[in-house]
Amino acid sequence: MKKCFILITIYFLIFSFAYGQNQNKNSASAFGNIQRNSVYVELLGIAGMISINYERLVPLSNKNGLGFRAGIGSAEALTSFIEVNLIHGKSKHFLETGIGYVDAFDYPDQWVSFKLGYRYQAKKGFLFKVAPMYIINFEKAKGNHDVFGGIWAGASLGYSF
Fold it and tell me: For the residues 22-38, what does the mean pLDDT come to?
């Protein structure tokens, strides 16, 4: 399972960099005027308590784009994750929906998250995100009710370049 996770992460990163090379940064769209790469710290959120993230935006139209995100974090154990987001908006304010997959090292926990949130991304680099989410923990689905799953939220601060 971890090999599959690593391969998917590499695929998304390569795809986003290759696709990003062909983008016209002078277009009049919302996605033509914002930075494509972001690094940020998320408190709570997909990975548990805290995580470090890298995200790449890929424009789809004037107001829509995809975000591919990967990172590492900490819950009770070290976690790694990938997430795909659909981003809609203009200027600096965006609606962000996404689905992510998390794998905890040294624990059998794996979970999927679904989120709907707000994204503020300034043209000069400041990034702020906040999102409620719903987490489905596969161990809980197997009958282990001692693991976390359910409604959760996260907030992120970072820099776009």
Answer: 66
Query: pLDDT category, 99, cuts 50, 70, 90?
Result: very high
Dihedral sign from CA coordinates of 74, 75, 76, 81? negative
Of 93, 43, 92, nearest to 71 by C-alpha is: 43
How far apart CA 156 and CA 119 sit, in angstroms, is 9
Count up the domains in the chain and report the number: 1
User: Six-digit token pair at 5?
Assistant: 């996770």
Give one word for 63, left, alpha or beta, with left for phi > 0 and alpha for psi -120 to 50.
alpha
Pull the structure tokens for residue 132. Answer: 């409620």
What number is the average pLDDT over the span 122-137? 93
Give the CATH number of the domain where residue 14 resides: 2.40.160.20
CA gap 81, 100 in Å, rounded: 7
State the DSSP code for 23: -
Spatial distance between the Cα atoms of 11 and 151, rounded to a whole number of angstroms: 30
What pairs with residue 59 in β-bridges? 65
Question: Which residues span the domain enclosing 150?
Answer: 2-23+32-160
